[in-house]
């Protein structure tokens, strides 16, 4: 009798254990569906925080080429003017060079939106293309009339524009 009571108790315990394990593993049956829902939610969130493509946005807003190409376009607009100014000065007086403040002042009259930074970048480009030569200021820097226009390049203070 003791033996049968023990077996009954063990069977009841085993049955309870099976039920507990079944209940414990039941959430795992829905796990693949939950993972798919989680993946979909993550993909949706990543789509919302996707970085903006600046070139595409600029093209859409302006209806033109991306902004990365505009500095070249600007330089071409007034860059030729700089070369012509230097050539004209060389014809008038080959011993007197144009200063950067003179060039900038003339360009600003024709291109009012030109900034000093764009001016300096364009001059560097023109010199790299060997269309102009930027001459150094060889006197004491304290004697510069307009030091704001001077351009520091190649370990020198460039202040004059001439043909190469």
Structural features, described:
The protein has 164 residues and is α+β, with helices and mostly antiparallel strands. It folds into 2 domains: 2-50; 67-162, Arc Repressor Mutant, subunit A (Orthogonal Bundle), CATH 1.10.10. The protein is built from 6 helices and 4 strands, in the order ααααβααβββ. Strands 1, 2, 3 and 4 form a 4-stranded antiparallel beta sheet that branches. Residues 66-75 have low confidence and may be disordered.
What's the topology here?
Elements: H1 2-29, H2 31-48, H3 54-62, H4 70-92, E1 98-99, H5 100-110, H6 116-128, E2 133-136, E3 151-153, E4 156-162
Antiparallel strand pairs: 1-4, 2-4, 3-4
Helix pairs in contact: 4-6
Keywords:
rod-shaped; alpha+beta; Arc Repressor Mutant, subunit A; 2 domains; 164 residues
CATH topology title of the largest domain: Arc Repressor Mutant, subunit A
**Structure classification:** alpha+beta
Could you say which overall geometry the principal axes of the C-alpha atoms support? rod-shaped
**Strand content bin:** 5-15%
Taken in chain order, the helices and strands follow as HHHHEHHEEE
Give the strand tally.
Answer: 4
Approximate helicity band: 55-70%
Return Rg in Å. 38 Å
- Secondary-structure arrangement, i.e. CATH architecture of the largest domain: Orthogonal Bundle
State the CATH class of the largest domain: Mainly Alpha
Helical run tally: 6
| Parts with pLDDT < 50 across at least 5 consecutive residues | 66-75
User: Span from first to last CA?
Assistant: 117 Å
